[in-house]
Each structure stands twice: as C-alpha cells, then as structure tokens.
Amino acid sequence: MKQLNVGLIGGGFMGKAHSLAYAAMPMFFWPAPAIPVRHTIAEASDELAAEAALRFGFQRSTSDWRSVVEDPAIDVVDIATPNHLHAEIAIAAAQAGKHIISEKPLARTGAEAKEMYDAVVAAGVVNMVAFNYRRTPAVALAKKFIDEGAIGRILSFRGTYLQDWSASPDSPLSWRFQKAIAGSGALGDIATHVIDIARYLVGEFDSVNAMMSTWIPERPLQSSGADALGTVRGGDGPRGAVDVDDQVMTMIRFAGGAIGSIEATRNGYGRNNFITFEVHGTEGSIVFNYERRDELQVCFASDGDDRRGFRTIYTGPAHPYGKDLWPIPALGIGYGETKIIEAHDFFTAIAEGTSVSPNFGDGYQTALIDDAIVESAETDAWVDVPGID
Ligand SMILES: NC(=O)c1ccc[n+]([C@@H]2O[C@H](COP(=O)([O-])OP(=O)(O)OC[C@H]3O[C@@H](n4cnc5c(N)ncnc54)[C@H](O)[C@@H]3O)[C@@H](O)[C@H]2O)c1
After folding, report:
1. Cβ 116 under 6 angstroms from ligand 1
2. Distance from the CA of 279 to the center of ligand 1, in angstroms?
3. What is the pLDDT of residue 389?
4. Which residues are CB-neighbours of 256 under 8 A, at least 6 positions away?
5. How do the domains of the chain map onto residue ranges?
6. Tell me: the pLDDT tens digits for 89-135?
7. Which InterPro entries has this protein been placed in (predicted)?
8. Where are the alpha helices (DSSP H) in the chain?
9. Residue of minimum CA distance from atom 28 in ligand 1
10. Cα–Cα distance between 48 and 300 in angstroms, integer?
11. Which of 8, 9, 14 to mutate for ligand 1's pocket (most ligand atoms within 8 Å of CB)?
C-alpha cells in the first residue's frame, strides 16, 4: 500500500487534531487510499517541535518550516499555523510540488487567498482547505436530502456559530484577536465554517448586508504563541488592543434565489460549539445543531397534517461515511471523526489524482465573502460578492 510522508507545520490545537486523523484514518477507512506517515513536524522553536514530535508521533522535528517544504521526502504539507503564515507556506509548498491541506480561513483577505489559489493551480497539486464541519455525517446527510429534492426548492438558510470562550475580558490577547495575524475575528475564525456550510448546502452568495462589533477592546497580553481558547486567563498585567470583531451578523441573498442569515460570536455565554442551521424548502425543513451532532431533524410536507413535525434521524452506517465509522447509530460522532473523514478524502484525491472539495478555490471564494461582509459592515450597505477569477 502506498505511503505518503506528511510534513505538518504547527503543533497546537489543529496539530493535535490532524495528527490524530493521520494515525486513525486507516483504522477506519480500510483499505486506506494511502497510509499517511507522520514524517516531520515543524513548530515555532526546536523545543516545541521536539515535544510535538514525541507527542504526536512524528519521526523528525524542526523549527524551520521551509526545510519541511523543501524536503524531497515530503509528499504532503499540512498547514496548521495561525492564519498569517498560511499564504507564505502554501505558495512555497506549491512551488515545491507538494500536495497541500491548509487550515481555514484559507487567508486573511481575498487578495491573499487569490495568490494561494493561483499557486496551486499553476503547480497542479492536490489542495484542500479544512472546512471539516461539512464532513459531519449529519451535515452530509442534509446535503444528500437537499440534492435529492427531499425538501424541494430552498427558500431560506439560518446559520449560527456561537461560542463563549472569549466572553471574559480576562481571556488573553492571543493571535485570534490580532488583525495582522488572524485577518478578522469571529468572522474568519468561526462564521467562515457556516459560510462554507451555506455554500455547500444552498450555493453561491449573490450579496450580503452585515454588522460587526468588538465588545472587549483590550485584553491581557499573552506571552506564548499558542491560543489556549480562553482556558487560561490573564492577570493584572499589561493589556493590548483588540482590532478584530467579536461578533458578526449578516443577511444573505443567494444566487439561486434563497435568502438567509449567518451570525457568529465568541462572547455568547452558555454556547460552546453551537454551529446550527435551519433550512426551509418548499417541501420540508432540515435542522442541525453541532452540539447534538449525531442527530439530523427533518420535517417533510408530504407527511399528513395530523403527523407533520420534526423527526430525529441518528446518523449511523446507513448515512454518509457511516459504514466506515461505527457500526451502530448514535454511538457518537466527534470532532475527531470529522478530521479523520477529511484526511481520508484528501488522501483519496492524492492517490487517485483527482480534486477534492472544499479546495483552495472554495477557500478563495469564502475569503471574498468575508471581504464583502467587512465592506458591508463598514459602509452599511448591501455588497455584491464577486466570483473567483
Ligand atoms: N477546522 C477547525 O475546526 C479549526 C479549529 C481551530 C483552528 N483552526 C485553524 O487552524 C489554524 C491553527 O489554529 P490552532 O487553534 O491550532 O492554533 P494554536 O495557537 O493552538 O496552534 C498554532 C501553533 O502554530 C505554532 N506556530 C506559530 N508559528 C509557527 C512557525 N513559524 N512554524 C511552525 N509552527 C508555528 C504555534 O507555536 C502553535 O503551537 C488556524 O488557521 C485556525 O484558524 C481550524
């Protein structure tokens, strides 16, 4: 069986998730499209890299990501760093002929995403952007129902991504609150996942109208590079300015005629990973809540008036990806499973020489939507979303 050497750059939260996926993918998907070999991991210092290699099962470690990209032994470059490094690493990796998976948001702006997209197109390498939530089996089942016409023509999409890990003013000024590193706040960090789901389920955006707010203008400075996502609180030390949004709300006109809304906050006490959507069609409705991610709720107009209502489907072997996961519905789908499925689909595309979605083109289109949302919030006007060129 073919083995492909992975060079993983960034050993934080996503470094953990991706390493787990590479180890576990062949355990679930067998025969595997290829065996991912955890070859080299790069971190910000030699000490962090050595620790990450030991912890995540990599053969080698380095503090120089360029040496990974340039290593002829590496087949796949995995970008799991903060957002400001995605473009530089991806463009270098494409020029070195590596297949690339990059974490989301693909880039800080549409212009930056375009450079990355152009680089992978020119190099002809397989590329993927890690919008893993669309690979939750219940979300893929919603897509199947919509594609089959089970709920008719789509009228509306209401999506949320609500969290509370930054609601405390003592949650530190990590890279996620710095525009130069992150590009944007709740918009690029979390709303972007729901934008990807909306494109996946409903289609392209025609125009947006948005509002954005920053609720906590200063946070305690943080010394380490990794973001502890609110699990560590700052003390009485110096504070620095937040220059990204804490909350975004947007109304959407879809190109296909549907209308919708997406909102995201990291300051919504009581919400943890509250990715939800509700899709209404002319023949029914579909509801999803990631905090109950084994379940998809559906209501069909064809049910008689006396029994119409939402029913709950627990995803299992009969549903997308299900036969390779666990043998009984409701055993429990987790975040790890979405990353294992993502790794499977990425390595399948490499092994078969095909493309995979969402790819850098999707990441670029999503970045253009993010740009339009920012422009709309600044100008208080509807803004058209361009297509990628
Ligand atoms: N798909 C998802 O569900 C999801 C979830 C969280 C984060 N993300 C994305 O993943 C990326 C990483 O986020 P995270 O939560 O893992 O962040 P993190 O802060 O936990 O980890 C980032 C790591 O990158 C390392 N790093 C910084 N500079 C480096 C360099 N020059 N070379 C090598 N390593 C370097 C840091 O030391 C840190 O360990 C971001 O783009 C983020 O938006 C995606």
Report:
1. no
2. 32
3. 80
4. 154, 202, 203, 204
5. 3-132, 137-292+294-333
6. 999 999 999 999 999 999 999 999 999 999 999 999 999 999 999 99
7. Gfo/Idh/MocA-like_OxRdtase_N, Gfo/Idh/MocA_oxidrdct_glycsds, GFO_IDH_MocA-like_dom, NAD(P)-bd_dom_sf
8. 13-28, 46-56, 65-70, 86-95, 110-123, 137-148, 179-182, 186, 192-201, 335-352, 360-379
9. 44
10. 53
11. 14
- The answer on pLDDT for 170 being more than 80 is yes
What separation in Å is there between the alpha carbon of 257 and the centre of ligand 1?
37
Q: Whose CA is nearest to atom 15 of ligand 1?
A: 13
Token pair listed for 342:
């993502």
The C-alpha atoms of residue 221 and residue 239 are separated, in whole angstroms, by 5
CA distance 172 to 230: 7
Q: Whose CA is nearest to atom 7 of ligand 1?
A: 14
Tell me the pLDDT tens digit for each residue of 202-255.
999 999 999 999 999 999 998 777 888 888 888 778 999 999 999 999 999 999
| CA pair distance 65, 42, nearest whole angstrom | 6
Q: Do domains 3-132 and 137-292+294-333 have the same CATH topology?
A: no
Does the CB atom of residue 227 touch ligand 1 within 6 A? yes
Whether 226 is in the pocket of ligand 1, judged by its Cβ within 6 Å, is yes
14 lines ligand 1 (CB under 6 A): yes
- How far apart are alpha carbons 351 and 373 in whole angstroms? 37
Is it true that domain 3-132 has CATH number 3.40.50.11540? no
Q: Does ligand 1 lie within 6 Å of residue 377's CB atom?
A: no
Would the pLDDT of 385 be above 80?
A: yes
Ligand 1 near 132 CB (within 6 A):
yes
277-309 confidence digits (pLDDT tens):
999 999 999 999 999 999 999 999 999 999 999
Q: Which amino acid is at 293?
A: R
pLDDT at 227: 86
Of 154, 240, 167, give the one whose Cα is nearest residue 197.
154
